[in-house]
UniProtKB/TrEMBL annotation:
Top-level taxon: Bacteria
InterPro entries, alphabetized: Ferritin-like_SF, Pigment-catalase-like
Official protein name in the record: Ferritin-like domain-containing protein
Keywords of this entry: Membrane, Transmembrane, Transmembrane helix
Range of residues in the leader sequence: none
């Protein structure tokens, strides 16, 4: 029964890792201040909107903001150009995606992954804009730059990947691109998972489930590639743990995140490509928790980080953690 014993050991090791998580990253407070998050003032209208009845359109528009971010990052990284102007208009304050550029990929496999994911994310933007119709939100201002004070650099600095005043350039190498993608993909999965119970229209729910499945495939691609490259460059695996812990420091006290580090020993060693809870289920995040991460701020704010002026639509305030 050695095989059964090894399996039980592996499952126990996977559960134990949850108790061994590192402390939250207080550095995010500094990073958020540098990023210039906008604190919501008392009586501001977004607060009232956030507590009102949320419609399916509100949820889909929230998702559309996230798809704008992902699509612009992947399209620039894969092709050197972002979304066409025909995919950017809508309600709310329109803005540009700044700082993106093409990655000079050295690994052809990673390059092909980038091309595929970029095409998927562009399709998600166009699909959601069509599904929502006339009330679809415009793309807000998005920061995907490699600036030392930009969102990527502040996120990487808070995770301990770069020092004060040092830029993290997501377009500088295959590995940097993968780590930048890792920041987004797990969050996208938890966002759609968390929103799914709130969607009342079955047609919209089916569409959201379809996008959730694609985002999960994307996350698995990124996590698998980082894990494989981390076998020869352990610092990559350490970086995923640092990013994971940094995200968890923003969205509250619950542990909703995992890096790709393997657990167990010997025949009981397992990878951690799929981050799951104790019941083997994917994690969920509320809209407020998702905004904590993309705004790089654990407080209740209406902008910052990857969305300097906030997202468009009703759901635009992060949670107070």
């Amino acid at each position: 029964m050695a095989d059964s014993s090894d399996l039980l050991d592996a499952m126990e090791a996977r559960s134990q890792r949850r108790a061994d998580r590192r402390a939250f990253f207080n550095a995010f407070s500094t990073a958020s201040a540098i990023a210039g998050g906008f604190v919501l003032t008392a009586g501001a209208s977004p607060a009232a909107a956030q507590t009102s009845t949320i419609t399916d359109g509100d949820i889909l528009n929230f998702a559309l903001n996230l798809e704008y971010l992902e699509a612009q990052f992947y399209l620039y990284a894969a092709t050197g150009a972002g979304l066409p102007t025909t995919s950017l208009s809508g309600t709310g304050a329109a803005g540009a995606a700044t700082g993106g550029r093409r990655v000079n990929f050295t690994d052809p496999v990673v390059a092909r992954y980038a091309q595929e994911i970029a095409a998927d994310e562009r399709a998600h933007v166009d699909f959601l804009r069509t599904a929502i119709g006339a009330t679809a939100v415009a793309q807000p201002a998005i920061d995907i730059s490699a600036d030392p004070n930009g969102a990527f650099s502040n996120a990487a600095r808070a995770a301990g990947l770069v020092g004060p005043g040092v830029a993290f350039d997501p377009y500088a190498s295959d590995e940097n691109f993968l780590l930048a993608a890792f920041i987004f993909e797990d969050v996208g999965v938890t966002a759609y998972k968390g929103a799914s119970p709130l969607v009342s229209n079955k047609t919209f729910l089916e569409a959201a489930a379809g996008i959730l499945a694609v985002e999960a495939y994307h996350a698995a691609i990124v996590r698998t590639t980082l894990y494989a490259k981390g076998m020869t460059t352990p610092a990559l695996i350490d970086a995923t743990e640092a990013i994971s812990n940094a995200r968890d420091s923003l969205d509250g006290t619950s542990d909703l995140d995992q890096g790709v580090r393997a657990s167990g020993t010997g025949n009981a060693t397992t990878s951690n490509i799929v981050p799951l809870d104790a019941d083997g289920l994917a994690y969920s995040r509320t809209a407020g928790q998702v905004l904590n991460i993309v705004y790089l701020n654990r407080a209740a704010v209406t902008g910052g980080g990857f969305f300097p002026n906030g997202v468009n639509g009703t759901l635009r305030m992060s949670a107070a953690n």
